[in-house]
Design brief:
The chain has about 280 residues and is an all-alpha fold. It has 13 helices and no strands.
Length: about 280
């Protein structure tokens, strides 16, 4: 019993240390976002609110977040929808080996996860330029979806493998067609997987720099992340404004993740049982 309590105490201490190391930079950014540049350079660890919300007002205006945040939401939302629909249907087919060459497709998906996307940037850029799609968030979301699709399909397939085949056989006997089978049976059962994949793809799309900086030309088409990087590059005389801009972008994502973390963790654990 004493050994069990000691192990539990050690685990709590280690987890507390990890939590402190992870959270302290975010807290430091939040505190400094309310301070003037002079106060930050003088003592970044002090807790003062000398700038008030002036940094946030300036960051919102200079970063043009009134335009770039909706652009990010549109790009991220489009990418998530494309990936979820495609991965759900592909995983259903691949998990049940309903077409010939399923093993080849799975192997290709695994291989494609190791191929860097920048190898395809030049031909993709030429194609998008010829089609007039540069600066189009919906069109660029298809590129982001293609980058995230291999991971999403493999994760979703693991969930399908955990569902007994007898469930589908019973539904077929009752006269359920494929559409109703997917929508009424598999969709509710795979809701943890859908949430998990949606969060992973959403975070990747929201934070993407390489693809968005290449294909989203023009400041009016920038995402919030591109605006943040541009603001940090040209506004080196006011760290408070830069940190306020970081809070504007990062903390809504953190709050969303805290709300969805239970379903996200359940999805990761359940999807790792079988694959």
């Amino acid at each position: 019993m004493k050994e069990k309590k000691a192990n539990r105490l050690i685990s709590i201490v280690i987890l507390t240390l990890f939590a402190f190391v992870s959270v302290s930079p975010l807290v430091l950014v939040l505190v400094n976002s309310f301070k003037t540049h002079v106060d930050i350079t003088r003592d970044p660890l002090s807790i003062t609110f000398s700038a008030g919300i002036d940094n946030y007002i300036k960051a919102w205006h200079d970063g043009n977040f009134g335009t770039t945040l909706p652009n990010s939401i549109l790009l991220t939302g489009s990418t998530v929808v494309i990936v979820l629909i495609s991965a759900f249907l592909a995983a259903y087919v691949l998990a049940g080996k309903r077409v010939r060459g399923s093993s080849v497709v799975l192997s290709w998906l695994l291989i494609s996860m190791t191929i860097p996307v920048y190898l395809f940037l030049v031909p993709l850029y030429k194609f998008y330029a010829n089609m007039g799609w540069l600066g189009n968030q919906i069109a660029v979301s298809f590129i982001l979806a293609a980058c995230n699709l291999p991971v999403a399909v493999n994760l979703m397939r693991a969930y399908f493998l955990n569902i007994p085949k007898e469930l589908e056989e019973a539904a077929r006997i009752d006269g359920c067609n494929t559409f109703h089978l997917l929508c009424r049976i598999y969709l509710p059962l795979l809701s943890p997987a859908i949430v998990t994949v949606g969060i992973i793809v959403g975070l990747n799309s929201w934070n993407d720099f390489l693809i968005t900086s290449t294909f989203l030309l023009g400041e009016t088409n920038f995402t919030a992340m591109l605006s943040l990087l541009a603001l940090n590059g040209m506004n080196t005389a006011n760290h408070g404004t830069n940190m306020a801009a970081t809070v504007i972008i990062v903390f809504p994502i953190i709050i969303f993740f805290i709300i969805m973390q239970k379903r996200f963790i359940d999805g990761i654990v359940n999807g790792a049982v079988k694959g």
